[in-house]
Amino acid sequence: MSDARRLLLAVLYAAWVMVFVYAFFAYARAPYEGAGFPDGLNKPAVYLGWQGIAGMLAIAVFGVGWGWPKGSAVRGLAVVPLVIAGLHLLAIAVVIFWAEGL
Question: How many CB atoms lie within 10 A of CB 30?
Answer without folding.
Answer: 18
